């Protein structure tokens, strides 16, 4: 795609970085301007940003600095997730959506995504993640090692099977002092 807000991304994006454009919160959430405010507020509630946006001067029309520089990393990630949820796609792919956020924001993202895929509309989530906690609620994991599929199945079964995922869980537990890892 040439021109437009996507030009801002050229050579500046890292995996896991949320993408926001200069403009307003509204234009970042609904670039085509086709959604009613009620839908925007509904999704902002799902990602726990409703109160934060309502408190901003201008609310949905509050300004966003280039790249979302006037927001925290967690807020940028949650706004990017809200924009993705507003697309109402049957398949949502998230690549390292929780890589650069704190544990509390990680949990917010997981709850919002869980609600999205379990709403009875037959949606599918493809999540690429390195944090064990991020994938433990999945229905099915595909575990890669050396660029190859090493194993697949429900997380609890894989964690108990003694394979690649089991070793990942054990390493995370050792690193985190026995708590299930981030």
Strand order of the largest sheet: 1-2
Q: Count of helices?
A: 8
Helices and strands: which structural class?
Answer: alpha+beta
Q: Characterize the largest beta sheet: strand count, sense, and whether it forms a barrel.
A: 2 strands, antiparallel
N to C succession of SSEs? EHHHEHEHEHEEHH
In percent, how much strand structure appears in the residues? 5-15%
Spatial extent as radius of gyration: 18 Å
The level 1 CATH classification of the domain at 4-129 is Alpha Beta
Number of extended strands: 6
CATH topology type of the domain at 4-129: Rossmann fold
| CATH level-two architecture of the domain at 4-129 | 3-Layer(aba) Sandwich
Q: Are there runs of 5+ residues with pLDDT below 50, and where?
A: 1-15
The level of helicity is: 25-40%
Task: Provide mean pLDDT, rounded.
Answer: 82
Superfamily at the CATH H level of the domain at 4-129?
P-loop containing nucleotide triphosphate hydrolases
Distance between the termini: 35 Å
Shape: elongated
């Amino acid at each position: 795609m040439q021109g437009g807000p996507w030009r801002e991304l050229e050579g500046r994006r890292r995996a896991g970085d949320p993408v926001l454009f200069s403009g307003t919160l509204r234009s970042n959430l609904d670039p085509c301007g086709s959604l009613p405010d009620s839908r925007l507020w509904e999704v902002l509630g799902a990602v726990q940003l409703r109160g934060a946006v309502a408190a901003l001067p201008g609310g949905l029309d509050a300004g966003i600095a280039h790249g979302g520089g006037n927001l925290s990393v967690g807020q940028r990630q949650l706004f990017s997730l809200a924009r993705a949820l507003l697309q109402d796609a049957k398949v949502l792919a998230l690549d390292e959506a929780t890589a650069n956020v704190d544990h509390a924001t990680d949990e917010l993202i997981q709850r919002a995504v869980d609600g999205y895929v379990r709403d009875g509309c037959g949606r599918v989530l493809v999540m690429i993640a390195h944090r064990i906690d991020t994938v433990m609620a999945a229905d099915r994991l595909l575990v890669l090692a050396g660029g190859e599929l090493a194993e697949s199945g429900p997380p609890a079964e894989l964690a108990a099977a003694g394979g690649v995922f089991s070793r990942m869980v054990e390493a995370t537990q050792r690193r985190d002092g026995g708590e299930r890892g981030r």
